[in-house]
Automatic annotation (TrEMBL):
<dbReference type="InterPro" id="IPR019223">
    <property type="entry name" value="DUF2147"/>
</dbReference>
<protein>
    <recommendedName>
        <fullName>DUF2147 domain-containing protein</fullName>
    </recommendedName>
</protein>
<feature type="domain" description="DUF2147">
    <location>
        <begin position="29"/>
        <end position="125"/>
    </location>
</feature>
<feature type="signal peptide">
    <location>
        <begin position="1"/>
        <end position="22"/>
    </location>
</feature>
<keyword id="KW-0732">Signal</keyword>
<dbReference type="Pfam" id="PF09917">
    <property type="entry name" value="DUF2147"/>
</dbReference>
Length: 129
């Protein structure tokens, strides 16, 4: 019995627990880049189909015309669940539309990745606010 109590937290950490347990984490909410230079709101898309993430704020020192044009727009659009704590959809990055993914690493950490032609990839780490 003591052995099972010891293994249960490890199984959850490694993603070996039941999918229903892993699915309990929700990406809905307010997030900030790990560097603190951008903030996003993640919610259901207006269409009700998938997740969307909207860029809502940029720190003063990273603002430029291209980035400012992205404020108020979806940087992730229509992401559909592909497994526990994983979604795939469209990522809009630096004027490019990429195939991307959203992964909840933990309840307060999220990774957004996008690739163009599977060669040029970018990953952004986010923390819950």
């Amino acid at each position: 019995m003591r052995f099972a109590r010891f293994l249960a937290p490890i199984a959850v950490f490694l993603g070996l627990a039941a999918p229903a347990m892993a699915q309990a984490i929700s990406p809905i909410g307010n997030w900030q880049s790990a560097k603190g230079d951008a903030r996003f709101v993640v919610d259901q898309c207006e269409s009700g189909r998938g997740l969307c993430a909207t860029l809502v704020w940029l720190r003063e020192d990273v603002r430029n015309p291209a980035r400012l044009a992205s404020v108020g727009t979806h940087v992730v659009e229509g992401a559909q669940a592909t497994g526990p704590n994983r979604w795939r959809g469209t990522v809009n990055y630096a004027g490019h539309t990429l195939s991307g993914s959203v992964t909840l690493v933990s309840p307060n950490e999220m990774r957004v990745s996008g690739c163009m032609l599977l060669i040029f990839c970018e990953t952004m780490e986010l923390v819950r606010m």
